[in-house]
Structure formats: C-alpha cells, structure tokens
UniProtKB/TrEMBL annotation, chain A:
PANTHER family: ABC TRANSPORTER PERMEASE PROTEIN MG189-RELATED (PTHR43744:SF12), ABC TRANSPORTER PERMEASE PROTEIN MG189-RELATED-RELATED (PTHR43744). This is Multiple sugar transport system permease protein. It is a multi-pass membrane protein. It is found in: Cell membrane. Gene3D superfamilies: MetI-like. Its main location: membrane. Residues 23-32 have a biased composition (Basic residues).
Length: 312, 313
C-alpha cells in the first residue's frame, strides 16, 4: 500500500480512463464474439429505435398523410422542410420561443445545480463541522422525496411569494438536486486527494481559490454528470411548468407541444388541422439537442455516473 | 508527488481536531459550512418548506361558510377512505410490482451483455438503448400514443393486413400495460447505464482469476458481477420506487386520446393535480400530495430494509 501514490489509489476506481478502456477492449477482443447474442441485442435495439424511426418518418408527412399512409414508411410527398417551416412560423413563431425558454430554464438550472452540488459535496467530503452529519442525512433522506409530490405545495408557496408564472418558478426548484450532492460527495472523496489540498494551503491559496482553481477541475467528470442529468430533468420537465406557468410565452417546449397536441386532438379535421404535423415535427426538433449533448459528452457522464452506483 | 504519507483510507474523513495547532485545520473547519451553505439554504426553502407547508395545509379545510377552519386529521381520514385516492395508489402499486422488475431485469441483462465483451457493435447498441432517456416523456407519450392508435397506428395496420385481431392498446384492459411499455422504453437505458458503469469498475483481475479456476461467462456473471452490482441495483430500485409511485406525465398525455379510460384520478399524482387545479381543493390536494410522499418514503425504506436484512446473515 505504501508504494501507491494517492492518485493511483483513487483515480481508477471511479474513472475508467481512455487508457483503461483500451486495456479492457484489448482483453475482450481476444475472446470470441457471439453472433446470437449480438442478434438478440440488435433486436432489442430495434425496439428502442422504432418510435424514433417513426418520428423521423412522420415528420416528413403532411397531417393527411400521417393518417393515410403506413406509419413506418415515407409517403409519396415528403415535406420535411415545409413542416419545419410551419412549426417555426405557427402562432407568430411561438415554437422558437418555447425552445429558447427551454434552453434558458435547462441551462441555468443545470449550471447552477452542478455548481451548488459540487460545492456542497466537496464541503461535506473534505471538511468536518458541527452538524455536518445531520445536514447530510437530511439531504440523503430527501433523495426519496418525490419531486412531483413536492410540486403542489411548492406551487402554493410560490403563489404566495408572487413567483408563479415567472421563469424562477421553474429554475429555483431545479437548482436543488439531492442526488447530485450525494454523487458529488462520493466523487470528491476519491477524486480530490487531501495531499493536493494541503499543498495548496501551504502555498497560501485561499479556500475559494482552491475550490475554483483546483477542486472543480478534479471534479469535472462528476460535474458534467450532474450538469447533464439536471439538464435532461429540466429540459424534459412537464409537471412543474404545467402547474407553474399559464402564459404560453413562458412555456417550455414540453408544455407547448402538449398544448398543441391537445388542440390537434380537439380541433378535429377543421381548417387548422395541420396541427398534427406540427406536433410531430416539433417533437423531433425538441429531442435533437439533448441527444447531441449526450453523444458528445458520453465519456464524462458515464464515468461520473459510476461513482454513485458503486458506493453505498 | 512524494507526499504519499497523507493518503488517507478511502472513504473516511479525517477529523479536524486530529491535527491540532495548524492554521490549516482551523481554516478548514470554518470553510466547510460556507461551501455547504448555498445548497442547504435552497434545500431548506425548496424542500423542507414546501413539505412543512403541505403538512400544515393538510390540517385545514375550506368551508363554504366560515372560511378556512382547522380540522385536525379529518383530511387524512377522508383520504384514507377515498376510493379515488386508494384506487390511484393501488394502480401505481400494481404498476410498480409488474413494470419495475421487468425493467430492471432487462437493464441488468443488457448491462451484462455489454460488459461481457461478446458483442459486436457494443457502442452503438449501448447508446441506442440509452437514447430514449433523452427523449422528454411528453414526446415519448405522443409517439407511443400514435403508434398505439387503433385506426391509423402501424401495429393496427399490420394486424389488419395479416387479418389478425387488432390489439386495442388504449382500452381499459391494456392501458396499464401500454403505460408500462412507455415507461420501460424510456428508462431501461438509464438503468442499464448505471449498472454498466458499476460493472466497469470491477477489477478485471477477478475475472481472470475466476476463469483460471474454470468459471465460464455465466458463472462469472452470477457469482462475481451480480453480487458486485448490489449497491447499483439498489440505487436503480430506489429511483424506480420514486418514479412509479408518482406516475403522472404519461397518463396525463394519453388522457387526450383515451379520455374514457384514463380518468382524472387514474394515478394518485394525477388525482392530486386534479384536486388542486380543476377542483380548487387546495387543502385536500396538499393532503393527498403529502400522503403520496409518505407512501413513497415508506416503500423506499421497505426496499432498503429488505436489501440490508438479506445482506447481514
């Protein structure tokens, strides 16, 4: 044990580095691949991709073709661009507004929640102070408190405080992520070696400086994980904005799309029954950014997620 | 990097008082609360305050005559004998019992398959299964809603083409299963990734030693991997308890296309929403929310206790 540097003892446990993955892949390629298993997994993959394939195809159709042509193949008159244009121009471009709202709500919430969780997790993992255990168990217990059961009392409180129907009604509740704090604490325990903190203190660095300059960098995979998962949670949030907002100009894209869907359903085959095509195309547009974010950042969030699942 | 002596045992915190007389130690004690404070303040305001407020509201009733009156636990006795609330809770409990084991079993199988190294295209498959997690439940419900459609849905069309009976996914008998399918579709990948990430942290030496002893892939999965996954499985199970009992988005959205099947009290959460926003029964809605939260906490503790008891002997 004495021969190990702190870095060697902590880092690999939580972070399968590119190096390690390479080693593992090498180990695996030495074994034989299984064709039946691959085929079974591809069949499973088909199930997960089928609705998305349908969405992709459906967004090239007019509302009429949506109902007249077979769902899993293109119609004779594909019109993806027309649909996109219609989606963006319907109701004076309210869809663009919804997208922007979503980006703002989700972006601010995610960055804020990640920073708060990182600071808190680091504080709990590397400092001892009065009441730290109590405070932490309180947060840990709150992981079990369902957010939607909280939503109605939060709404009532916010109504009293005059926060209902403002962006804060969506952002504030999303800033507190108890599981994120837990994850960051577990992560900080391993990823931030005490020796580095000591060294920086001896060099005379202040605590804030140490945190922003050194600790945040060491925590970055965990930070990206919390950031990304809060981003998804807020981006995809439906219940909270549904109850908090009644001004369509403030809607995020989820509530906006569902209001369009309700209109399309109830409007019947009237003059404005293009709504179905708009709902479908809008749905497609709304999922692209998140899917791209996950694909681009997968190396980080996957390793960050590991730490939460390993510790108990 | 020669300062190896300070390496502390993993996962254990060092006590401040253990290193007396050092300027660093006192600074460390004073800085801790400052790092924790921003989170804790918002936590108190946005978690504990609403919970307390719900508890408070649940003790009152708005009367037509005489305004708001303190009624003690009347709302609770009402809720506990309210067939709509009880059916809602019963329905999500049934949903939990059927959907969650299925979903977690699938997630476990996928994670093991990915980790086995026997797959071709493993990366593509892994991301493909995970992608639905990034899809909002609103969009997921809309998509599946169209796919389920008895008139225009592709499943119905295929069934008609080959002269099979058309499955009515949106009927009373099928609805819970249809909802379970949407939720499974959304979250298998998420759970799979948690399990997969945990699998990647198992030291590969263990597998090598086991296969040297003649253990096959199945044996290794059963005797090494699954026991090592316990904490991760527990985590996914806890999240699933919380998720299923507060089921809301999917039934709320399918309500548009199947209003006769999904009533306004189909799930407990939907009932609380209806009470608060269409019934204007704020106090009773708070009671239902609070009770639902209680049900979830109790179910979570039951899961934790069972898991821990099994571990001790």
């Amino acid at each position: 044990m004495t021969a190990l540097t702190p870095e060697a003892t902590v880092a690999p446990a939580v972070e399968p580095t590119a190096d390690e993955q390479g080693r593992k892949r090498h180990r695996q390629s030495a074994r034989r691949r299984s064709t039946p298993l691959t085929i079974a997994m591809l069949a499973a993959l088909a199930y997960f991709l089928l609705p998305l394939l349908w969405l992709l195809i459906a967004s090239t159709k007019s509302t009429q073709d949506l109902f007249n042509s077979f769902g899993l193949w293109f119609s004779h008159a594909p019109q993806l661009l027309t649909n996109i244009e219609d989606t963006f121009t319907q109701d004076d471009g309210v869809f663009v507004r919804w997208l922007l709202n979503t980006v703002v709500y989700a972006g601010v919430s995610a960055v804020g929640a990640a920073l708060l969780a990182a600071a808190g997790g680091y504080g709990f993992s590397k400092f001892r102070f009065r009441g730290d255990r109590t405070a932490f168990s309180l947060v840990l217990g709150a992981v079990m408190v369902p957010t939607t059961a909280l939503a109605i009392p939060t709404y009532l409180l916010f109504a009293k405080a005059g926060l209902v129907n403002t962006p804060w009604a969506i952002i504030l509740p999303s800033l507190v992520n108890p599981f994120g704090l837990y994850l960051m604490r577990v992560y900080a325990e391993d990823a931030v070696p005490d020796s580095i903190l000591e060294a920086a203190r001896i060099d005379g660095a202040g605590e804030a400086r140490i945190f922003f300059r050194i600790v945040l960098r060491l925590l970055s995979p965990g930070l990206v994980t919390v950031l990304l998962f809060t981003l998804v949670a807020t981006w995809n949030n439906y219940f909270l904005p549904l109850i908090m907002l009644n001004d369509p100009d403030l809607y995020p894209v989820t509530v906006g799309l569902s209001s369009w869907a309700a209109q399309a359903q109830n409007g019947g085959a009237g003059a404005s029954s293009d709504m179905f095509a708009l709902v479908v195309t809008g749905s497609l547009i709304s999922i692209v950014p998140l899917v791209v974010a996950f694909l681009m950042l997968q190396r980080y969030w996957q390793s960050g997620l590991a730490s939460g699942g390993v510790k108990q | 990097m020669t300062a190896t002596t300070t390496a502390s045992p993993k996962g254990r915190r060092r006590d401040g008082p253990a290193r007396p007389g050092r300027g660093g130690a006192s600074r460390r004690r004073s800085a801790g609360p400052l790092f924790v404070a921003p989170f804790m303040v918002l936590f108190l305001l946005l978690y504990l305050a609403p919970l307390g407020y719900a508890a408070y509201l649940s003790l009152f009733q708005e009367r037509l005559i005489g305004g708001t009156a303190f009624v003690g636990l009347d709302n609770y006795t009402q809720a506990l004998t309210d067939p709509q609330f009880l059916h809602g809770v019963g329905r999500v409990a049934l949903f939990f019992v059927i959907q969650v084991p299925l979903m977690l079993l699938l997630a476990l199988l996928f994670a093991l398959a990915l980790d086995s190294g026997l797959l071709r295209l493993a990366r593509v498959i892994r991301l493909g299964i995970f992608v639905p997690y990034a899809v909002p439940s609103v969009v997921a419900s809309l998509m599946w809603g169209y796919l389920y459609g008895p008139d225009f849905g592709p499943f119905a069309r295929i069934a008609r083409k080959v002269s099979l009976p058309v499955p009515d996914f949106l009927s009373d008998g099928w609805m819970l299963g249809s909802l379970a399918n949407i939720v499974t579709w959304e979250f298998v990948g998420y759970n799979m990734i948690i399990l997969y990430a945990a699998l990647r942290t198992i030291p590969t030496e263990l597998y090598e030693a086991a296969s040297m002893d003649g253990a096959g892939a199945w044996r290794i999965a059963w005797s090494i991997k699954i026991p090592a996954l316990r904490p991760a499985l527990l985590l996914t199970l806890l999240f699933s308890v919380i998720g299923s009992f507060q089921l809301f988005n999917e039934p709320k959205l399918l309500m548009n296309i199947a209003p006769d099947v999904i009533t306004s009290s189909y799930t407990a959460n939907l009932y609380a929403y209806t009470l608060a926003f269409t019934g204007q029964q704020v106090n009773y809605a708070a009671t239902v929310s609070f009770l639902l939260g209680l049900v979830i906490v109790i179910a979570s503790y039951a899961v934790l206790l069972t898991a821990n008891r099994r571990r001790t002997p």
